[in-house]
Description:
The protein has 219 residues and is of the alpha+beta class. The protein is built from six helices and ten strands, in the order E-E-E-E-E-E-E-E-E-E-H-H-H-H-H-H. Strand 8 and strand 9 form a beta hairpin.
Amino acid sequence: MYAIVEIAGQQFKVAKDQKIYVNRLAEDEGANVSFDKVLLADDNGNVTLGAPAIDGALVGAKVVKHLRGDKVIVFKKKRRKGYKKKNGHRQSLTQLEIVDISLSGKKKESKKEDSKKTEAAKDASKKESKTSENQASDANGFLKNIGTAKKEDADNLKEINGIGPAYEKRLNEVGIFTYEQISKLKEADMEELSSIDGITREKIESDEWVKQAKALLKN
């Protein structure tokens, strides 16, 4: 079985127990490493092609040693300029020994990753739920003053200049759905509302939300 794998920006045809030289890796000598950018695998004539990499495939290897390659001479010359420059370069390399080629090694790993993602999603959901509960609790103060409303009775709050889709969503989240509720906002309510949703009292007053809401109620 052999595979075409990308390692440190280069492509190699590898087989088990083969030793290859790649651009210097950060791992220590003796460390085990794995590479998941497997572009092609041939298992006794059964060829699998990636798009671009094969999902679930892994090439395992062991870092044998770090070394430097043969010296390469770089000579530069400019005609009629009297310019000549000669430099030598030795590339830093890592010798790897291929330990294993697997077409399913990544699937086990992805299950662990999926489990972690699921747990993270649950934690995020719990935090969001707590945030919503806290907002609702904080909103009770001014909702007692302006009254409550149901979502099905909601007015188009975007008709009020200064309230766009984002602000309408924030207002809905704390239970404000109607022109009548906004028309009853007092100074204390505006202060409390701004602390919850980031909508400043100055904005509410300068855009005259209360006045506009009262006018819309008359229409």
